[in-house]
Amino acid sequence: MAKITEIEDLKRIYKRRTPKMFYDYCESGSWTEQTFRENSSDFDLIKLRQRVAVDMTGRSTSSQMIGQDVAMPVALAPVGSTGMQHADGEILAAKAAEKFGVPFTLSTMSVCSIEDVAENTSAPFWFQLYVMKDREFTKRAIQRAKDAGCSALVLTLDLQILGQRHKDIKNGLSIPIKLAPHTVFDLATKWRWGLQMLQTKRHSFGNIVGHIDGITDMSSLSVWAAESFDPKLDWDYVKEIKDLWGGPLILKGILDADDAKMALNVGADAIVVSNHGGRQLDGAMSSIKALPSIMDAVGDKIEVHLDSGIRSGQDVLKALAMGATGTFIGRAFIYGLGAMGQHGVEEALRVIHTELDTTMALCGERKVQDLGKHNLLVPRDFYGDWA
Ligand SMILES: Cc1cc2nc3c(=O)[nH]c(=O)nc-3n(C[C@H](O)[C@H](O)[C@H](O)COP(=O)(O)O)c2cc1C
Ligand SMILES: O=C(O)C(=O)c1ccccc1
User: Fold this and answer.
1) How many Cβ atoms sit within 10 Å of the Cβ of residue 317?
2) Where are the catalytic residues (predicted)?
3) Is the link from the previous residue into 73 a cis peptide, with omega within 30 of 0?
4) Is 309 annotated as a binding residue?
5) Closest protein CA for atom 27 of ligand 1
């Protein structure tokens, strides 16, 4: 097999092996996909400052995210239906993260349950919560995460209704999965995917049992989300959830300086500057472009993480140099998982680590903590006058 040298290699294999419905689900953004595209292209606008004749021995990417040691400040983002990209996908990704020494975040919408992941790993993982209309569900989910020893709660705030995702609508993506004739044909040609799927007993969403049982009309994903998630989620409820959980709280989906201030007021430990990988509000700013104003507003008072668009260690370095303490990757690890299971996630992490380390050295830095704006040339409009 050809050597994996970049995330794009994993994406190519992933695409070849995965049924179209699930590939599209991962690879799409909402509506025109402008934000999805700009999440990546805006990283390219930032240039790195090459520095020479600097001692580059003894380099280290190790750091901390919310006080927890990490081999590099790159966590695996919560990704719904990871277990449909590869059988037992959440367990495999969690194992890869544990081996590498980075945090794994389990989505509420995972196929493997909180307990499945806890039983098959030893490092504490983070649990991502979606707030359902059923408030008892929230209480139970938080208790389950506590019982499983989760070391942070990641509360996602940018998806109470689903962004319009045209590919998913056209593909008829639904909960539970609906099989149209063309889908069956597609599945039949992706035999590797089918074969490994047969080896697992986990074919439903392990964390939301009871919340999908009632739905019998094969709703589309967006109809299901609109019926199930609580549109009333507000800052008062966020505070209630913080108190219920009582541990480290990360608020995910912050893209505006005013919301970052609200997150600070509510007492969160960290925020994730994120537009959900361009899957929610199309036309919103890319995360990396939103970062400077958020750093200015709260950067010295709360830990700031960033995701959306990271496809390389260079992207990670740019986010850190602009002030983020940590980053999350979503699709970059899913490509690896879909391409070659646990090994593929390890490969994705290895690629990103190598790129981060090499870039750091060529920028004349030895520690991720020393990265700063001095390493970058950033277009003025990143700090610009948005009216
Ligand atoms: C297929 C897919 C499913 C996702 N599911 C969730 C989810 O269940 N919960 C959540 O908070 N974010 C979810 N996200 C968003 C990711 O956590 C993350 O914000 C995003 O993927 C970052 O962008 P990137 O993919 O460009 O790295 C999902 C993203 C993708 C691609
Ligand atoms: O697809 C997503 O981005 C996501 O977060 C989600 C939302 C509802 C159901 C499954 C996944």
Assistant:
1) 26
2) 276
3) no
4) yes
5) 330
The answer to whether 111 and 207 are in contact (CB under 8 A) is no
User: Is the ipTM of this structure higher than 0.90?
Assistant: yes
Q: What are phi and psi of 253, to 5 degrees?
A: 110, 20
Sheet holding 303-306, edge to edge: 74-76, 326-329, 303-306, 270-273, 249-254, 152-156, 126-129, 105-106
Contact in structure between 97 and 72 (CB atoms under 8 Å): no
Domains of the chain, earliest start first: 7-362 (3.20.20.70)
Which pTM value belongs to this model? Answer: 0.97
Adjacent-strand bridge partners of 306 = 273, 327
The whole-number average pLDDT for the span 98-115 is 97
Pocket test for ligand 2, best of 39, 81, 90, 109 (most atoms within 8 A of CB): 109
Say what percent of the chain tops pLDDT 90. Answer: 83
List the catalytic residue out of 86, 276, 305, 353: 276
Please give the full DSSP string across 170-191, using - where no structure is assigned. Answer: HHT-BSS----HHHHHHHHH-H
Of all atoms in ligand 2, which is nearest to the CA of residue 225? 8
343 is known as an active-site residue: no
307 is in an annotated binding site: yes
**What is the DSSP code (8-state) at residue 285?**
P
130 known ligand binder:
yes
b/e per residue, 28-59, with b = 16+ CB within 10 A? bbbbebebbebbbebbebbeeeeeeeeebeee
Ligand 2, atom 11, lies closest to the CA of 80
Which residue has a Cα nearest atom 20 of ligand 1? 277
How far is 26 from 19, CA to CA, in rounded Å?
A: 11
What percent of the chain lies above the pLDDT cut of 70? 97
Task: Burial-class residue 160 by CB neighbours within 10 Å (0-12, 13-18, 19+).
Answer: middle
